[in-house]
Amino acid sequence: MSLPTRVRTAPDASEPAWLTRARTGDREAFAVLYREHYGLVYGYLLCRTHDRHLAEDLAQEVFARALRNIGGFAWQGVGPAAWLTTIARNLHLDELGRGRTRHETLVAEFGDPAQAGPGTESLVLREFDVIEASETVHRALSALAPSQRYCVELRFIGGLTIEQTADAMGRSVGAVKALTHRAMHKLRWATGAVAA
To answer: Measured between alpha carbons, how far is 132 from 122 in angstroms, rounded to an integer?
Structure first.
């Protein structure tokens, strides 16, 4: 089974065969959907939770829900990225509502002391640098309008192209380019890289 290509489709384009088969219960076709969109869903959740283990758990639940409800997905000329992202957003909001979200910082596992490698202190310092960078990105993203943040998350965390982002957001390519440009300028300003 070949993987689907991520290209913008015309509004009147027919539903891809693999998606039609997934909607009728074909598990192998659903696996294509999973492989094609897992990175986007995981990246979206990681950006929201700042916890890779929780993001992995929630991403798995997104696809479990998607599998249970694939028959309800209505083809409208665009792929299921927006549908999956909506499920992820709802799951994340449910998680926040339950108050179960924990902020943990995992320290890298200690290596074999007999082998040469970075010392414990440098591993911990590296982990602190990662945490600090993550907090800086989170603060900068929170300065964006919701549509700008969603656009940046899809483009740079989810790894979507401008066309794929336009499909997922239900906007034109030009609108996504403008959102991206304004968002990047605001991010540069928020991080102090440029003057307002």
So the answer is: 15
